[in-house]
């Protein structure tokens, strides 16, 4: 079969590889639409290290073409969306109601620790599959995984009805968080983003103010529509040292900071006036990682019910042979891309 194999920083080769052999509890899927995630970009540019060679790709929909002997819930021809991380179900974190089961001590992940979907075929454990509702096409279904991650971020942000909220970054996750923040009843939402097209999209999705952080004073401009005070909640969705540190400055005393963006591996982050932030200012700081139990199902239901508008999220489409070109385009930052997808 044909696959795009990642060998190291900016080194992806499309080549013929062996078709996966199935275990009894696995399903063979033909990927139909595969989204390029920010984590794929970080891996491609060398900001996150993984064991190589590896086939990337974990945001995807597809069709079942073969099943293992013990597979019971899915059959050939089923349309599916894949939850990439399959937890063991037996460790402390999997069995703790209050913890993120993505802390699982034995968590193989499609596209990270085992071969992913930038290929003609990909094998997936049966418990990692979800049926794609009939009213969702393969492209919309490919946004389930990032939406599930955004739902986790929304949950961790604890936005309350009437809150003033700032979302830093209007990439796919930031835009999804803007939509979810509105659904949670935020009174005012400010989005910061240097890219003009993304700012325009944020405004169209419900942001009251979309600011270019390189040209405008975010703190001052936000206060103009926040009744003269700072944000109740700031959600960081960029994944940079600068915006992470900025989050603490933009939040009111007693407010909440939620870090959703993925920084390059090993990024040192300093909390400005850290003693004041924790003691006097009493900030609550929450991280948000992946899409733990239940969020995938919630994302599917939300899209199937047509409760949020993602119709314009996919802006660029490439074939598998052009994956390197697509990643290089994203790295260049010159084209106004929102979500880039690959159709193997």
Quick synopsis:
By secondary structure, the chain is an alpha/beta fold.
Secondary structure layout:
Blueprint: E1 2-8, E2 11-16, E3 26-35, H1 38-44, E4 54-55, E5 59-67, E6 79-82, H2 92-95, E7 122-125, E8 129-131, H3 138-141, H4 144-157, E9 164-168, H5 172-183, E10 188-192, H6 196-204, E11 209-211, H7 218-225, E12 231-236, H8 241-250, E13 251-259, H9 274-280, E14 284-287, H10 295-304, E15 314-319, H11 323-332, E16 339-343
Parallel strand pairs: 9-10, 9-12, 10-11, 12-13, 13-14, 15-16
Antiparallel strand pairs: 1-2, 1-4, 3-5, 3-7, 3-16, 5-6, 6-8
Explained architecture:
This protein has 344 residues and is of the alpha/beta class. The chain folds into two domains: 2-143 and 313-343, Alpha-Beta Complex (Quinone Oxidoreductase, Chain A, domain 1); 150-287, 3-Layer(aba) Sandwich (Rossmann fold). It is built from eleven helices and 16 strands. It has helices at 38-44, 92-95, 138-141, 144-157, 172-183, 196-204, 218-225, 241-250, 274-280, 295-304, 323-332; strands at residues 2-8, 11-16, 26-35, 54-55, 59-67, 79-82, 122-125, 129-131, 164-168, 188-192, 209-211, 231-236, 251-259, 284-287, 314-319, 339-343. The strands form three sheets. Strands 3, 5, 6, 7, 8, 15 and 16 form a seven-stranded mixed β-sheet that branches. The protein has a six-stranded parallel β-sheet with strand order 11-10-9-12-13-14, with helices on both faces. Strand 12, helix 8 and strand 13 (251-259) form a beta-alpha-beta unit. The longest helix is centred in the middle third of the chain and has 14 residues, at 144-157. The N and C termini lie close together (11 Å).
